[in-house]
Amino acid sequence: MQLWKGRFQKALSKTTNDFNSSISFDSRMYKEDIEGSIAHSAMLGKCGIISQSEADAIGQGLKDILADIENGTLTIDPEAEDIHTFIEGELTARLGDTGKRLHTARSRNDQVAVDIKLYLKKQVDEVSSLVKGLAEVICNKAYENAETVMPGYTHLQRAQPITFGHHLLAYAEMLLRDLSRLDDCKKRMDVMPLGSGALACTTYPIDRMYTASLLDFADVTHNSLDGVSDRDFCIEFASALSIIMVHLSRFSEEIILWCSHEFKFIELDDAFSTGSSIMPQKKNPDIAELVRGKSGRVFGDLTTLLTVMKGIALAYNKDMQEDKEAIFDAVDTVKMCLTAFTPMLDTMTVLPQNMRKAAAGGFINATDCADYLVKKGLPFRDAYKATGELVAKCLELDLTLETLPLEEYKKICDIFDEGVYTAIGLEKCAYERSPIGGPNPDNVRREVERVRAMCNVQKPK
After folding, report:
1. Which residue of the set 129, 180, 276, 434 is catalytic?
2. Which of 13, 14, 74, 130 is 20 to 30 A off residue 257, Cα-Cα?
């Protein structure tokens, strides 16, 4: 069945039908299509455009179709042009001429636009819930490791002592921004395009605000051309999803490093690792690697949407059918990655002794040594130079700042005394970084509670 066949004298070729069809991917919106149609028919009845009895029959018929699809009685026809055609065709088969009245004062253009917005609003909520679940696991791990000293890195070189809890909470901050972006995206998505018609609204006395209230939209679109041709909400959602994948990919990279023999800061649970077909000793972080790899797929979906929309004149063009596969794939991929990544993180074993051992090397307390001199009155640049000379001496003698004899300290700067060894102790170096945003354990615990409150999650019992 084609809704537009009256104009044409020839049947559509199978090749054209297959190329034109979107049922293979838009069928997932069957529920939203029915929800939108129920609201539209109710509005038509309220406004007297069709009789109330017809509106009631259409509404009930659509509810019956929904129930039949969900209980398996009705199978969506893969040969249908799209989900909208299938639903309307099934309704007409059941109700006859009454079913044909459903599409009054509506175009497939505004119907498609409202369906995808209804669907994506739900998906924003689902992704947000998964992001909060990951933030909850991060908070739990951070709280447990508020005092676990590890080396912080810049350029992947050991830099300064921090705590593992503090490091993990950096990702919680990223997730909070992700949640904010998702929330903003949903606000701009929450305007109803139904009633825009094909591009120029309709001459029927429809009540768009009534339809919007039935579909739980905050407002209606205020330009019919934009109402049917806008896909900014898809692009914005794909952008937010892409940034989530950036964060997951960075986190995955660190997990891959941390569970390597060279770092050995963590060990992944056997349930979230794989082996090798030839090397029996291998335990591979495949989930983290796949998440890292799938980020490119989501970035590609965003690029697809941007490219599809960049050269389209107003209003609707068939190019826009390409929006669904891209945004659906981005949503599916991010949800799948979050679903796998969160339990992997939750079940990993932290190895504090290895983190502490790594922190003891690499002179990551050098800045604290310089600060020790500054607190005794030496200008920072002079203190910096003196500490650099101390590091060079340690390398020459194969020692660390902790094991370098005091007399060597004094040769470089006579201000040094026994107190330097306390000042450069790793725990002291990490724990005394107490300004807001620092790795001090009390800071970490406070930030855990802040993140939990912002994500509305509870601490474990």
Report:
1. 276
2. 130
